[in-house]
Each structure stands twice: as C-alpha cells, then as structure tokens.
Amino acid sequence: MVKTILLMGWMHLICDFVLQPICLSQLKCKSWWVEECKKNNVDFKKYQGDYISALLMHGFTWSIMILIPPMFLMDVPNWLLIKFFIINAGVHAYVDDLKANRFKINLWTDQLIHIIQILVTFYIIVFNPTLLGQN
C-alpha cells in the first residue's frame, strides 16, 4: 500500500510538472487564446472554447497517470477505476481552470487540492470501495 500511494504522488509530479509542456500550460489559459487571436488578427469566437479542451485533456492525462499504480499494484475493480478516472479528470480540469483562468486560487492551493484528490482516491480504493457504489 505504501508503494501505491508513493507512486501515485510521483505520477502526479511527473504529469503536472514534467510532462506538461509549456504549450499545454498556455493552451489551458483563455487569455493566451485571446492574445494569439489579437496578434494574428483572427476572430476569437472560433477558438473561444479551445482552452476547455486543453484543460480536459490535461485532466484526463493526470487522472490516468495517478490511477496507474493502483491499477497494477492492487486489485481494483474496473468500475471503480472508471469512476475515479471520470471524477478525478473533471475535478483536476476544474481546479486548473480556477487557477489559470478565474484566478481564484494559487499554485499552492491547486497542488493541495490535487494531493487531496490522490489521498481520497487511495483511501476509498483501500478502505471503502463501496462508497462510490457498485454497478
């Protein structure tokens, strides 16, 4: 179990800091799209939702990465992995939006929330998998 939680944390660091290129960090920011459209004399309406796609893609990637350790080191039912994938991807994208676009939280709060996501995911997988219900 200790290996699993440590690897989940390690995967978080890799995905949120190492594998997230600068361009993805920019693509998640609505202001980047606005500026690029201004620079290139392009109508922003065409691209106004593209930052949301970048937020979701990063959320999906992060969610997969943190679920790899429990997927391979523990006996986790597929239905639970799928639920955690969807929940964690959505929460991650929303939290990143609060930081990058709404300026409601800073990087410290963003990272604290992501660590809490990992701890809650681990806790439910280990101690109470029925908390999310079975299909």
Keywords:
single chain, 135 residues, mainly alpha, 6 helices
Please sum up the structure shown.
The chain has 135 residues and is an all-alpha fold. Helices cover 75% and strands 0% of the residues.
Topology:
Elements (H helix, E strand, L loop, with lengths): L1 H17 L3 H6 L2 H10 L10 H24 L4 H23 L6 H21 L8
Helix pairs in contact: 1-4, 1-6, 4-5, 5-6
Give a written overview of the molecule.
This protein has one domain. The protein is built from six helices and no strands. It has helices at residues 2-18, 22-27, 30-39, 50-73, 78-100, 107-127. Helix 1 (2-18) packs antiparallel against helix 4 and helix 4 (50-73) runs antiparallel to helix 5 (78-100). The mean pLDDT is 90.
Percent of residues in helices: over 70%
Number of helices: 6
Instruction: Please provide the ordered H/E string of secondary-structure elements.
Output: HHHHHH
Secondary structural class:
mainly alpha
Overall 3D form: elongated
The separation of the N and C termini measures 25 Å
